[in-house]
């Protein structure tokens, strides 16, 4: 399809200087800088050529709702997801019906099953964090903060969704849980580090071999046969496996699907906790405010946290300061692409009454990281972490943010929005809060060096969810006696 013959009402087109590739290199290298430049040149809607694809980028947050709630027959989330499924995870599901899969998954992650998941996560976080008090003795231990946060949350998250060694648990079974989930994390992390290159098809020959061997190892670790003997498996896993079997998916393909799900469910919580803890460690006033809230809500609760087998939802829902810290962390570090495939020629109405024509076969991309999340018109000093940005003076959650004098519905979009908003949002929020509570209750935690700066982003990760740092941050921690 030749784009040079522009039709009336189409967004400005920028082809870049390289035929077919267009802007692919700049886009892959640092999408945020590239899109900022394009926004300055063309405004808040434009079309760019990226590796043979025409991508229309929409950066007006007042207009996002039309896209995320549009009919799937016009704008569909799934074709791009299916492309990534094949490209990264070698997964093909011939009878794949995303709507049915979603309908099955939804009740197992939300509403009534949320409580069971949250309780299991708390138990597993305790196993992972507090299980073996003999391991490090009572002295200080040093580690990278990303490694510490990511491994703790992924290990506990894996045990929660994919099951544990034995039920009821014993000291021995918990030790096995720690070893096995640490193995899953280490292997997963090798794949995670290669993800941007895998998605862009830009791995070197040597890296390709490495990616193959890491994937094979993960498929073995998560094979349905291996998982069959695990105890306390989540209703999410039971229901997902039944769904795969009903579709007639082979055991090999099922293992690949389970690896994809490990990434989709566990790839963002650890990096979120990393940034959150780092911002707290770098902002003593914020850390004091969180401590004061925990003192009020958790440590002085009728039953002290040390004796609780779970943190009740009522307690988790009464932490506006920690909520604000989490929202501010996500505002600064969550940078997913919200992508929709244009399924038919259509007119896209903007909030300011302009209308743009989109062509069937093009891709539509929202990048809330640039606006609303980093928009100076919405957030003063948008680069700065302000722990109370999402708090009103009376301590309640602040929800009113404005652009062009109009109140915004979508002012922070780490979870996406509309039809495809994250199904695990409540579970993820509960899990991260439980992790922070356990950590601040049971551990002393500090930066190895006070002068440590907040590291730069690994710029290749724009679009994949949470940003990751270019390098890890050394911390020391010890169990509080
Ligand atoms: C901090 C943690 C997390 C973040 C920031 C996050 C973010 C997101 C985003 C941005 C989307 C895509 C929305 C779109 O394209 O419109 C998404 C989808 C999804 N997330 Fe999460 N997520 C997190 C954790 C989780 C967890 C823990 C689970 C499950 C246990 C989960 C399950 C899902 C599912 C199933 C979808 C697909 C929804 C659909 O098909 O419509 N997520 N998430």
TrEMBL record:
Indicate the principal place this protein occupies in or around the cell.
endoplasmic reticulum
Q: Which residues bind heme?
A: 422
Q: What is its EC number?
A: 4.2.1.152, 5.3.99.4
Matching InterPro entries, A to Z?
Cyt_P450, Cyt_P450_CYP7A1-type, Cyt_P450_E_grp-IV, Cyt_P450_sf, PTGIS
Task: Enumerate the catalysed reactions.
Answer: prostaglandin H2 = prostaglandin I2; a hydroperoxyeicosatetraenoate = an oxoeicosatetraenoate + H2O
| A GO molecular function held by the record | heme binding
GO CC annotations, alphabetized? endoplasmic reticulum membrane
Q: Where in the cell is it found?
A: Endoplasmic reticulum membrane
| Alphabetical list of SUPFAM superfamilies matching this protein | Cytochrome P450
Superkingdom to which the source organism belongs:
Eukaryota
| Claim: Metal-binding is one of the keywords in the record | yes
UniProt entry keywords in alphabetical sequence? Endoplasmic reticulum, Fatty acid biosynthesis, Fatty acid metabolism, Heme, Iron, Isomerase, Lipid biosynthesis, Lipid metabolism, Lyase, Membrane, Metal-binding, Prostaglandin biosynthesis, Prostaglandin metabolism, Transmembrane, Transmembrane helix
Question: Keyword Lipid metabolism: yes or no?
Answer: yes
Q: How does it sit in the membrane?
A: Single-pass membrane protein
Please give the cofactor(s) recorded in the UniProt entry for this protein: heme
Query: What's one Pfam family here?
Result: p450
- Any one GO biological process: prostaglandin biosynthetic process
- Matches recorded under Gene3D superfamilies: Cytochrome P450 (1.10.630.10)
Residues holding substrate: 87, 93, 268, 363
State the family it belongs to.
Belongs to the cytochrome P450 family.
What does the record give as the function of this protein? Catalyzes the biosynthesis and metabolism of eicosanoids. Catalyzes the isomerization of prostaglandin H2 to prostacyclin (= prostaglandin I2), a potent mediator of vasodilation and inhibitor of platelet aggregation. Additionally, displays dehydratase activity, toward hydroperoxyeicosatetraenoates (HPETEs), especially toward (15S)-hydroperoxy-(5Z,8Z,11Z,13E)-eicosatetraenoate (15(S)-HPETE).
Report the protein name in the record. Prostacyclin synthase
């Amino acid at each position: 399809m030749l784009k040079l013959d522009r039709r009336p009402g189409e967004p400005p087109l920028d082809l870049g200087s390289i035929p077919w590739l267009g802007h692919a290199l700049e886009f892959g290298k640092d999408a945020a800088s590239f899109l900022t430049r394009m926004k300055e040149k063309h405004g808040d809607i434009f079309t760019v050529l990226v590796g043979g694809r025409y991508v229309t980028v929409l950066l007006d947050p007042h207009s996002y709702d039309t896209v995320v709630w549009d009919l799937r027959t016009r704008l569909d989330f799934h074709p791009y997801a299916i492309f990534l499924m094949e490209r990264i995870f070698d997964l093909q599901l011939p009878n794949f019906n995303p709507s049915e899969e979603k309908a099955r998954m939804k009740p197992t992650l939300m509403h009534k099953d949320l409580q069971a998941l949250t309780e299991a996560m708390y138990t597993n976080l305790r196993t992972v964090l507090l299980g073996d008090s003999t391991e490090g003795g009572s002295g200080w231990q040093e580690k990278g903060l990303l490694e510490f946060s990511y491994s703790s949350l992924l290990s506990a998250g894996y045990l929660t969704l994919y099951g544990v060694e034995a039920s009821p648990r014993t000291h021995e079974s918990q030790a096995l849980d720690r070893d096995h989930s640490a193995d899953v994390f280490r292997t997963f992390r090798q794949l995670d580090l290669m993800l941007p290159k895998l998605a862009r098809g830009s791995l070197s020959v040597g890296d390709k071999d490495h990616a193959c061997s890491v994937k094979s190892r993960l498929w073995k670790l998560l094979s349905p046969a291996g998982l069959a003997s695990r105890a306390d498996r989540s209703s999410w896993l039971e229901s997902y496996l039944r769904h795969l079997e009903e579709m007639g998916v082979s055991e090999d393909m099922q293992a690949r699907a389970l690896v994809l799900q490990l990434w989709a469910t566990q790839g963002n919580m650890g990096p979120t906790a990393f940034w959150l803890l780092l911002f707290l460690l770098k902002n003593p006033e914020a850390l004091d405010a969180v401590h004061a809230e925990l003192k009020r809500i958790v440590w002085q609760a009728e039953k002290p946290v040390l004796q609780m087998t779970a943190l009740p939802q009522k307690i988790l829902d009464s932490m506006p300061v920690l909520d604000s810290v989490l929202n501010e962390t996500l505002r600064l570090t969550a940078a997913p692409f919200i992508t929709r495939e244009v399924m038919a020629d259509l007119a896209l109405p903007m909030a300011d009454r302009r209308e743009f024509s989109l062509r069937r076969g093009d891709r539509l991309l929202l990048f809330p990281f640039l606006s609303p999340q980093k928009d100076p018109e919405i957030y003063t000093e948008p680069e700065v972490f302000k722990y109370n940005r999402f708090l009103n003076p009376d301590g309640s959650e602040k929800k009113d943010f404005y652009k062009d004098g109009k109140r915004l519905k979508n002012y922070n979009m780490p979870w996406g929005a509309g039809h495809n908003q994250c199904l695990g949002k409540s579970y993820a929020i509960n899990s991260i809060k439980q992790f922070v509570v356990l950590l601040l209750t049971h551990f002393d935690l500090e930066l190895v060096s006070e002068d440590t700066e907040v590291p730069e982003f690994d710029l290749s990760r724009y679009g994949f969810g949470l940003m990751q740092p270019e390098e890890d941050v050394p911390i020391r921690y010890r169990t509080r006696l």
